[in-house]
């Protein structure tokens, strides 16, 4: 998967790919609320034979709790279809820390369960001499736990973060994520942590191996985690415009965070995806077109699907950047989805 630009598919994505690696927050739900089209799109994907694994940077909850929430939102799910950053963090620990070693856990029930399942002795104080600190988000994490983590890391413990997301979407807006809390420990110690979560492709690879898939597709809302992880893992990525990263963000995306497909929501799994084509200096996608002239993005046409304008704009902007031009961000408007 070497393409730096958008891909096209003459057939629905559910036929081209055998596994969807689906992010949760901002894709399947937002806080406790469902996202329009999510249940419909995922039900259609299952009916077409596509397997699903929900891959989340959230390490606070156990897979069973995640599956229960999804099922309550009309997305029937079992725990084996959930891959959390807590599980990935425990796998990362196992690459350097022997079974039975002492590990300080800063996080929620999901992280405690995943670390315990790998055979580690969990402690809550740096005074217990942990050889590693593993840190994940949980609403109850506060100064006391962060201080213990800092004491242990300063004493030489290996610092492993479940993920480095600076924010997370909630029903009320964006709140501090695990990356913000990890930043407090980093600031206190000067030690850069290892990370198991996206944008590292570790979770994607674990999920693909678990499912036995050969043609996976990443589905996410964040360019800097979900789609960057897809690029890092050489897996096609679908950016749905229901969460953190906007259509404008996609147009201005750096090469390592570019999606391969764009869509308004998860119903896009059930339809073909047009590929933008170049016609002289314009890039067109059905009724929409875009070009870059002297660093300025120009748009024209009327698209049946608003995302076609985004696709054309991405193609034009990315092509210009790849040819060494600089696209002026002030010329890129907020685009519809």
TrEMBL record:
Organism (species): Cellulomonas dongxiuzhuiae
NCBIfam families membership: HAD-SF-IIA
Keyword Cell cycle: no
Segments forming domain GCN5-related N-acetyltransferase-like: 285-329
Protein name (record): HAD-IIA family hydrolase
Record GO terms (molecular function): hydrolase activity
Cited InterPro entries: GNAT-like, HAD-like_sf, HAD-SF_hydro_IIA, HAD_sf
Pfam entry (one): Hydrolase_like
Swiss-Prot/TrEMBL keywords: Hydrolase
């Amino acid at each position: 998967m070497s393409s730096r630009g958008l891909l096209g598919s003459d057939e629905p994505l559910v036929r081209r790919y055998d596994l969807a690696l689906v992010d949760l927050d901002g894709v399947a739900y937002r806080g406790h609320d469902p996202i329009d089209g999510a249940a419909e799109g995922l039900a259609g994907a299952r009916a077409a034979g596509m397997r699903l694994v929900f891959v989340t940077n959230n390490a606070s909850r156990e897979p069973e709790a995640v599956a229960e929430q999804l099922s309550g939102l009309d997305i029937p799910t079992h725990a084996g279809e959930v891959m959390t950053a807590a599980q990935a963090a425990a796998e990362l620990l196992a690459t350097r820390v022997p079974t039975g070693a002492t590990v300080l856990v800063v996080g929620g029930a999901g992280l405690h369960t995943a670390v315990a399942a790998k055979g580690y002795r969990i402690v809550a104080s740096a005074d217990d001499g942990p050889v590693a600190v593993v840190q994940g988000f949980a609403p109850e994490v506060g100064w006391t736990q962060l201080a213990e983590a800092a004491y242990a890391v300063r004493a030489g413990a290996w610092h492993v973060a479940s993920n480095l997301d600076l924010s997370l979407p909630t029903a009320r807006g964006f709140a501090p994520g695990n990356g913000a809390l990890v930043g407090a420990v980093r600031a206190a110690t000067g030690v850069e942590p290892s990370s198991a979560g996206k944008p590292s492709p570790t979770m994607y690879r674990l999920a693909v191996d678990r499912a036995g898939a050969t043609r996976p597709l990443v589905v996410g809302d964040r360019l800097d985690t979900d789609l960057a992880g897809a690029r890092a893992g050489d897996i096609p990525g679908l950016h749905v415009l229901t969460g953190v990263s906007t259509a404008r963000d996609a147009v201005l995306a750096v090469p390592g965070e570019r999606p391969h497909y764009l869509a308004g929501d998860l119903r896009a799994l059930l339809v073909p995806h047009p590929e933008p084509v170049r016609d002289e200096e314009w890039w067109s996608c059905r009724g929409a077109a875009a070009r870059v002239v002297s660093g300025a993005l120009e748009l024209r046409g009327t698209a049946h699907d608003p995302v076609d304008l985004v696709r054309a704009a991405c193609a034009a902007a990315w092509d210009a950047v790849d040819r060494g031009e600089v696209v002026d961000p002030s010329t890129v408007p907020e685009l519809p989805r």
